[in-house]
Structures are given as C-alpha cells and as structure tokens.
From TrEMBL:
Gene3D superfamilies: 3.40.50.360. This is FMN dependent NADH:quinone oxidoreductase. Keywords: Flavoprotein, FMN, NAD, Oxidoreductase. It comes from Periweissella cryptocerci. The gene is azoR. InterPro entries: Flavodoxin_fold, Flavoprotein-like_sf, FMN-dep_NADH:Q_OxRdtase_AzoR1, NADH:quinone_OxRdtase_FMN_depd. It catalyses: N,N-dimethyl-1,4-phenylenediamine + anthranilate + 2 NAD(+) = 2-(4-dimethylaminophenyl)diazenylbenzoate + 2 NADH + 2 H(+); 2 a quinone + NADH + H(+) = 2 a 1,4-benzosemiquinone + NAD(+).
Amino acid sequence: MKTLLYVDAHPLTAAESKTLQVADAFVAAWQTANPTGHIETLKLSEANIPTLDKDVFGTWLKQKKIGLGAPLAMSADENALLSQFNTLIDQFVNADVVVFANPMWNHFLPAILKQYLDDVLQAGVAFKYTAHGPVGLLSDKQIIHIQSAGGVYDHTSMRADFGDAYLQAMVEFIGLSIDDEYHTIFIEGADSNPAQRDAIITAAKTEAQNLAVTL
Ligand SMILES: Cc1cc2nc3c(=O)[nH]c(=O)nc-3n(C[C@H](O)[C@H](O)[C@H](O)COP(=O)(O)O)c2cc1C
C-alpha cells in the first residue's frame, strides 16, 4: 500500500486558494488511481510546526550528552518535543509520494514550509556527512511541487522562482532524482491576467490529474 503525504502550506482553504484547488484535484485523482493508497494531510498552519529555538537546541544538546552516557534525565516537555520531531520525520520518510502545495510569496516558499523542511530534513535521516561531502539517504520517493504565483516565471532562471529552485536543490541533496522523482505543477499568471483565471486553474488541474494517475 502506497502512502501519499499532502503538505499543505497555505493558510486558507481550497475555496479561497488556487494552489489548494489544484492540489486537491491531484490528491483526488491519485486516490482514484490508487484505491488502496493511504493519504495523510499535514496542514502546516494548523499543525504546530516547531521552530528551531533555544528550547529545541537545548533538548538536542541534552539528547547528545545522554547518548554519550551523561546521567541527564529528559523532562516531559523535552520528551514531547523529541516525539513531535520524530513523528514529523517518520511521516515524511515513510511517504512514497509527497505533495508540497504552496503559494509563491516574495519569490520564495512561505516561511512555514521552510520551517517544516528544516524540521524534517535532518542529518542522519535525510542525508549524512562523509569524508567526500554530504550524501543523500532517501530513495524511492516521488515529490510533487504545486505552486501558484501571480505572475509567470521562467523556471530555468535561478533569479525568478527561488522556492522551486530551492526545493529542487533539497530533493537532490536528500538523494532523489530531479529527472525521475520530482514533478512540478505551476498555476501562474491569474493575478496579472484575471480574464484567464479560470482557464489557468482548469489547465493546471488537468495537468495535475494526468500526473497523479502515473504515480
Ligand atoms: C505575501 C505575498 C507575496 C506574494 N509574492 C508574490 C511574488 O513574489 N510573485 C508573484 O508572482 N506573486 C506573488 N504573490 C501573489 C500570489 O503568489 C498569487 O496570488 C498566488 O496565485 C496565490 O495563490 P493562492 O490562490 O493559492 O492563494 C504574493 C502574494 C502574497 C500574499
């Protein structure tokens, strides 16, 4: 049984978001094509995604010291924090298909999605350091980036859509293939060309549905 993780990085609902309308169409088509598939939805704005603050680093430091044999007991709060990270990391690592759905904000991803990636793409889990540089540890995972932007972007230019360029870099960094394991659906230009809004959404939904049935 395959698992799809739908990482929803939009604070609103599909009724208000082009991104989520297209992402929902992708997920529904995937479920039809994979009737036994399991879907997990992670709405980041409602999921209490931890920020990497002083408490988190303090807990990680303590965990390392305990690992080295220091007699430090974890507090209930520290254990809860570690378990929260483990849950998020396991969910990402175990998913066969991961859908990232976000609006473009100031040429990048919403900060909460960057925060989520900082939480789950950790050394020892997603990649490891070696004498010859970092090596990705993940494999057999399909990543889909669904993103809506007001304008229309040249995705071959690093100076336009930093969010997608960054996701691509991270996907390669953790061991996946951009050619075979990374797919994009862009919903672009509805703000600059409102007369085309419905046509832009419909075309992106069709593209998403056609992709979903192949994964
Ligand atoms: C804070 C903010 C920043 C934005 N920055 C950009 C941008 O850099 N480039 C762009 O084309 N559109 C930008 N937009 C417009 C949105 O990306 C665009 O309206 C998108 O279609 C929203 O998707 P949605 O319908 O899912 O909310 C921005 C919107 C907001 C609210």
